[in-house]
Amino acid sequence: MTIVAKQKSRRSDEHPVSIPARGVTLEGDLGTPVDARGIVLFAHGSGSSRHSARNRFVAQSLRGAGLATLLFDLLSAEEESVDLQTAHLRFDIAYLAERLVAAIDWISQQEETRHFPIGLFGASTGAAAALVAAAERTRLIGAVVSRGGRPDLADPALPMVEAPTLLIVGGKDRPVIDLNQRAFAQLRCAKKLEIIPGATHLFEEPGALEEVAKLAGDWFAAEL
Question: 7 FRET partner, CA 20 to 30 A, in 37, 60, 109, 213?
Fold first, then answer.
């Protein structure tokens, strides 16, 4: 596939980083191709972390296309341990968005990345956090992509999002399609809703995640 060819043609060093966020330290992995022209921050959700295989696949594809990536944990190790038992923090959109804003501010101040335009890629509840963060940092965020996300949980921030926003949903994920359509109607920015035929919520079907990566890569390339 074209994505694989691009990945092989670029050198991308991924290294661990620590992000300060109001008294806690968030662990992340920063990958920067030598000729990167922008950076995409990943916001995970629903109990996922920076080790999410699906988001790592998309991140690798984006780096192959010349975009730096930051995958990081929205929760500290202690918080993740608690959330595994209670599952309450993963649905606290304001809390997750606050952490994402901290990462946005941090990445915009680092020597290695401060000149990059910034995009956000959110999955599940992380998509809502990404949209809330985009509404709070309108000058810094150039584009947003949601994969199987819950953008409806970002209400009432949706009308305040200025960054061009792409919502990607699986064609068989009917309840989430409805929720995305409602959120889409509230967005006032440049926007697009892409439904991948035959794909379920996790995009596990052959070629589905590759299509997500292509759509996201094209969106960020155009908008960043």
Answer: 109
Cα–Cα distance measured from residue 196 to residue 180, given in angstroms and rounded to the nearest whole number: 13
User: What does the alpha-carbon distance between residue 96 and residue 66 come to, in Å, rounded to a whole number?
Assistant: 27
Q: Which domain holds residue 69?
A: 2-223
Cα-Cα end-to-end distance for the chain: 24
As a whole number, mean pLDDT of residues 96-116 equals 97
User: Cis peptide before 156, with omega less than 30 degrees from 0?
Assistant: yes
- This prediction's pTM: 0.92
Alpha-carbon gap, residue 197 to 56, rounded angstroms: 22
What total number of domains does the chain contain? 1
- Asked if residue 43 lies in contact with residue 126, where contact means CB atoms within 8 angstroms, the answer is yes
Tally Cβ neighbours within 10 Å of residue 74: 31
Give the residue among 97, 103, 94 at the shortest CA–CA distance from 39. 103
More confident residue, 13 or 159: 159
Q: In this predicted model, what pLDDT tens digit does every residue of 123-169 receive, in sequence order?
A: 999 999 999 999 999 999 999 999 999 999 999 999 999 999 999 99
